[in-house]
Write a structure and sequence with these properties.
This protein is mainly alpha-helical. The protein has helices at 22-63, 68-71, 73-94, 107-134, 139-163, 168-189, 200-226, 230-249, 277-306, 316-340, 346-366, 370-398, 404-428, 439-459; strands spanning 264-265, 273-274, 432-433, 436-437. It has 2 domains: 68-261, Up-down Bundle (Growth Hormone, Chain: A), CATH 1.20.1250.20; 265-472, MFS general substrate transporter like domains (Growth Hormone, Chain: A), CATH 1.20.1250. The protein has 14 helices and 4 strands. A two-stranded parallel ribbon has the order 1-2. It is globular and about 60 Å long. Mean pLDDT is 76; it is low at 1-10, 19-25, 259-271 and 464-482.
Length: 482
């Protein structure tokens, strides 16, 4: 019998649940909730995977467009994306070291940095360039060696950074040298993989654009890894360069030249090939563009950090980011414009770029302010990207295959020297006279230099196009540069 409870008395203990009733329903609800969570995770993962797969397919389709898939150029485009991704990771890793430490605080350290940037080119031009020329018949292995060496050095540098060892400096220098050697070998390879109907300027632009995309994707990943320590972003770079080594070996066999290349001379010495006038003209234009870039990088870094514009005294980092970001945006825009240019002559393009830089320098010297400084950065980025695309295409078109790698090595050395000269001028000019900040002085000097160099280049321009029909390897006809 059930126990009777008096009215108003306190309720007794709850009855025990029958087996399989309430006690059975609670685990069932937990299983259903866990199943729903699992399904949600699987759907999210599937959606993310689908988006990544779609992005990958679109990137592959873009790299293979306009005959690049048939000629093998797409493999070089993908390889360059990996190269830029690895370089971005190395740059993020070194961002907190002496190489980028507070440029506004110690001009001596910045001058040392400028000198260090020339060391890779001091090795690339007289040594690496001719070496790559001699072994151009194995160019895939040469490019792969630059990737494998960087992977090895990144692993060593990671340990050096973690222990604050002086080995960080030689390993960093080795990475820089290998990076420049890759750039030279890659540029010399483009004409051999160029599909019919695609201009050299457009091909170079697509390769550069792939580099921008690779760096943009890799930099945040490297920064995330760097939150655990700079050595982890270097280990991430090791993985990227290891993958790039495999891609290098997978380049088409036609990337290799048929015979060893020979040294090149800018002065036309006996027994050496003399650089065609169009290449010299493009080099002179690019030298002016690089000089402005070096000056802008160093002078504006000092100026904006030590004496920011009115109203930006507590936001110097943001102020510098606006100017430097404008230059980076301009570089991307210039690369994009290069891929769209079809009929504008290369010589006209480099002249327009040089004139635009000179004009922007004059404007910022007269009307110094945030808007003019951002405009100068944007113009400098666009002009430098366009100028470099045209220079590479001109060398690829007018310099014969057997001399091309040395020509690229020496041109890269000249361009870096121009950048360093501009940087040295930027750190040498005073920011103040007495108690007065005078940015117009340094910017006025820059304007005079740019106008004078532009006038010199235009007066020395070649009278007629040279090298037509001589810029291709065996069995290739002349290719359009732009």
């Amino acid at each position: 019998m059930e126990e009777q409870r008096a009215p108003g008395s306190a309720p007794g203990p709850a009855p025990e649940p029958e087996p399989g009733q309430a006690a059975g329903r609670t685990p069932g609800r937990g299983r259903r909730a866990a199943g729903a969570t699992g399904r949600g995770i699987r759907r999210t993962g599937k959606a993310t995977g689908s988006a990544a797969s779609y992005t990958f397919r679109q990137a592959r389709r873009a790299s293979r467009a306009e005959g690049a898939g048939d000629s093998g150029l797409y493999r070089l485009i993908e390889l360059h994306a990996f190269n830029a991704a690895g370089d971005a990771a190395v740059a993020v890793s070194l961002a907190g070291t002496l190489f980028f430490a507070q440029p506004g605080e110690a001009r001596g350290q910045v001058a040392l940095f400028l000198g260090l940037t020339m060391l890779p080119f001091a090795i690339v031009a007289p040594l690496i360039g001719p070496f790559l020329d001699r072994f151009s018949h194995g160019r895939r292995w040469s490019i792969g060696a630059t990737m494998a060496l960087r992977a090895f050095l990144c692993w060593l540098m990671a340990d050096a950074v973690a222990s604050q060892s002086v080995a960080m400096f030689p390993t960093a220098l080795g990475v820089l040298v290998s990076s420049k050697a890759y750039g030279v070998a890659r540029a010399a390879t483009v004409p051999r993989l160029l599909p019919e109907g695609l201009t050299l300027v457009k091909a170079n632009s697509r390769i550069s654009l792939a580099g921008v995309v690779g760096a943009a994707i890799s930099a945040p990943l490297a920064a995330l890894a760097a939150t655990f320590g700079s050595q982890w972003s270097l280990r991430y770079a090791f993985v990227v360069f290891a993958g790039a080594t495999i891609l290098s070996i997978l380049l088409p066999a036609r990337a290799d030249a048929h015979a060893g290349e020979l040294p090149v001379s800018l002065s036309g010495k006996a027994n050496k090939f003399r650089v065609p006038p169009d290449v010299v003209f493009a080099l002179r234009c690019n030298a002016g563009l690089r000089m402005l870039s070096g000056f802008l990088t160093m002078y504006m870094a000092f100026l904006l950090r030590q004496y920011p514009l009115p109203g930006w005294e507590n936001q110097t980092t943001l102020l510098m980011g606006l100017v430097i970001g404008a230059a980076g945006l301009g570089n991307t825009i210039g690369i994009g414009l290069g891929s769209m240019l079809r009929r504008l002559p290369p010589r006209v393009t480099v002249v327009v770029a040089l004139l635009a830089d000179a004009t922007a320098a004059v404007v910022v010297a007269i009307f110094y302010g945030l808007a003019s400084a951002i405009a100068l950065g944007l113009t400098a980025g666009v002009a430098q990207a366009m100028g470099k695309l045209v220079l590479d295409a001109t060398v690829q078109r007018d310099v014969p295959e057997r001399h091309r790698t040395s020509a690229f090595a020496r041109s890269e050395t000249l361009l870096q020297l121009s950048w360093v000269i501009g940087g040295f001028i930027g750190i040498a000019l005073p920011l103040k006279i007495g108690d007065n900040v005078v940015p117009e002085l340094g910017l006025g000097v820059l304007a005079v230099l740019m106008v004078s160099w532009t006038a010199f280049v235009l007066m020395k321009r070649p009278g007629q196009r040279a090298g037509q029909g001589t810029g291709q390897g065996p069995g290739q006809g002349p290719q359009p540069a732009g």
